[in-house]
Amino acid sequence: MIKIAWHPLYAHPLPEGHRFPMLKYELIPEQLLHEGTIEQANLFSPDLVTEKNVLLTHQKEYWEQLRDLTLPPREQRRIGFPLNAQLVERELRIAQGTIDGANYALSNGIAFNVAGGTHHAGHSWGEGFCLLNDQAITANYLLNNKIANRILIIDLDVHQGNGTAEIFINEPRVFTFSMHADKNFPFRKEQSDLDVPLNDGLGDEEYLKLLEGHLKDVFEQHHPDFVFYLSGVDVLSTDKLGKLAMSKAGCKERDRMVFKMCMDKKVPVQVSMGGGYSKDIKDIVDAHCNTFRLAFDMFNV
């Protein structure tokens, strides 16, 4: 059975002005349940990730400042909203949801986190609404526990996975691959193992052609035994922050390419949702739901 991490806190601890894009964390599971793509049994509620697992990835001082709500105001501004206990708890549950999902994926081929993809959080800093890096924490958990030996992180959010790149810059067992809008946040990029910067206005055909070639290359180069996939839908033409011009159909084909490669290579994959900021919440939710629908068609046989 495909398992999906979700918790009510994913959607609710944010201050005024930041709530609209977070509505998707309520609406995605509601829509999938309503249409019958998933059942309640597919959903699980994650606990809090342990401090031990946080510290496999994040600096002790930074973590303690988050935990104790003493992060300096300047660093809170870099994250994008004032720190509070619920936000920290939210990130801890997201991180544990990704760890649990990775363990489920080892048995079922794929697993999801309705939130996650907090790829702007680096070793000692948060940024861009990201406090702790869920997929990096989970990658280090897998390595530390000798569950996986060679990990590939496929980041197809419209923004570069700068935090993930910085965390693993000197870790040869983790290959970081980011395809992102070149002239977009973060304006100071880090160095991934493979960065593919994209021009503004890039559409489906050219995007998918680039992805097809690079996917084949990174699998052949790195030979991963576990994959993390960040499936942001801020690549859509309707996205307020994205600068690309992909359709929902193109976005779904992007997901198909990733899933098919993982299936063909028999490598388990954990999927975190990443960004999506279209003006109409229906566009965000539908595009994210397509990722789930596709996985249930391909894996749930």
Order of SSEs? EHEHHHHEHEHEEHEHEH
Mean pLDDT level: 94
**CATH topology tier name:** Arginase, Chain A
CATH architecture, please? 3-Layer(aba) Sandwich
Cα-atom radius of gyration? 17 Å
Helix count equals: 10
Low-confidence stretches: none
Q: Based on CA inertia axes, which overall geometry fits?
A: globular
Largest sheet: 8 strands, parallel
- Helical content (DSSP H or I, runs of 4+): 40-55%
Assigned CATH class: Alpha Beta
The share of residues in extended strands comes to 5-15%
Write out the CATH superfamily name.
Histone deacetylase domain
Per DSSP E runs of 2 or more residues, the count of β-strands stands at 8
**What is the topology, as strand order, of the major beta sheet?**
2-1-3-8-7-4-5-6
Beginning-to-end CA distance, first to last residue:
10 Å
Which class of secondary structure composition applies to the elements?
alpha/beta
Number of domains: 1
Structure description:
With 301 residues, the chain is α/β, with parallel strands linked by helices. It has one domain: Arginase, Chain A. It is 43% helix and 12% strand. The protein contains ten helices and eight strands. It has helices at residues 24-35, 51-54, 60-67, 73-79, 85-108, 134-144, 162-167, 204-222, 248-265, 281-299, and strands spanning 3-5, 43-44, 110-113, 151-155, 174-181, 194-198, 226-230, 269-272. The longest helix has 24 residues, at 85-108. The mean pLDDT is 94.
